[in-house]
Amino acid sequence: MRSTSVDAARRPGSERSAVAPRLSGTVRVVGAGLLGASVGHALRAKGIDVVLTDSSPAQLRLAVDYGAGRLAAEDDRPRLIVVAVPPDVTADVVQAELAQYPDAVVTDVASVKLEPFRELQERGVDLARYIGSHPLAGRERGGAISARADLFIGRPWVVCRDGDTAAADLALVEALALDVGAMPLEMTPEEHDRSVALTSHVPQVVASLLAGRLAEADEGSLRLSGQGVRDTTRIAASAPELWVQILGANAGPVVEILDSLAADLREVSDALRDPGAAGARRVVAETIRHGNDGVDRLPGKHGQNRRFESLVVMIDDTPGQLGRLFGELGELGVNVEDLRLEHSPGAQFGLAEISVEPASLHGAISGLQERGWRIAGNTND
């Protein structure tokens, strides 16, 4: 029986899409947490029948009540199954789903790909219908209550195929990624795990270590917190239980990067022990410059490696100011490529750091100043 207690259209970003879905029939989602429920919301917004199941009856009922899918029925015949469970039980659930639904393609969305694949191989499981995958999307908060239909829009969705993967089965998993708004990207399990160690797993450890220092800080220090410390510690709010599993499953690549990072930190700390020593300032400068080079390589808007210029606008903390700023930038013909807001504690204004095309920077600054906006700085300063 389908749940109608909360319509899917009421979930953020879950309005019914006008674009026809690539998938058809029933999709079974095992695991009704953040990722599983978000897959459900996104597919239901496309008009696709979604069946949900979860080992926790309370979690399952909550996801169904929010409209992420319906409860399973005995006559369900899913063509595609999405396993969205913690890494330590991924292999068990994939094996069970392959056995229970012999005509279905099974994929999983675990954040590590090599360990579940090897574990299934060692058990002798026929993996012809299994295709590991991983959407590079998430939130600091988990559970069905945090799920969103737009969670995957514009995000990479890694698909791990092998030589035995049938083209039609691969197309199903790629269709899943496309239907939820993600961008499918083929990688081997080894390539995937090395990549996420650098771009996801080590950043989590670094953010948690830095944020841990804040736990012992005095209140006076914390009152000086600006956007820098907030940016670098944002993901430290993640669930410890899940990250113990993720880091343990991808320990090899993570340790390799952490060891290199520890050596880099030691070099900088040694240089700062005597900043006046020969070569010490160069070590510090090269460290910062090398970081600049790394940031420049991060894909930006639409996945492009493009550098934008930034201007910082002071905004009064009153209703409608941000909308007025955007409206006047539009009148000036300036496209906002990115936006970051910062509020200083106790101040009655905020700082809007706006990224624009380099050619638009001067016109944006002069045009906004003519309209009475206060410019606090820009990348040409």
From TrEMBL:
Prephenate/arogenate dehydrogenase domain segment(s): 25-302
Keyword set includes NAD: yes
Domain of life assignment: Bacteria
EC number(s) reported in the record: 1.3.1.12
Top EC group: oxidoreductase
GO molecular function: prephenate dehydrogenase (NAD+) activity
Pathway: Amino-acid biosynthesis; L-tyrosine biosynthesis; (4-hydroxyphenyl)pyruvate from prephenate (NAD(+) route): step 1/1
Catalytic activity: prephenate + NAD(+) = 3-(4-hydroxyphenyl)pyruvate + CO2 + NADH
Membership in a protein family: Belongs to the prephenate/arogenate dehydrogenase family.
Protein name as it appears in the record: Prephenate dehydrogenase
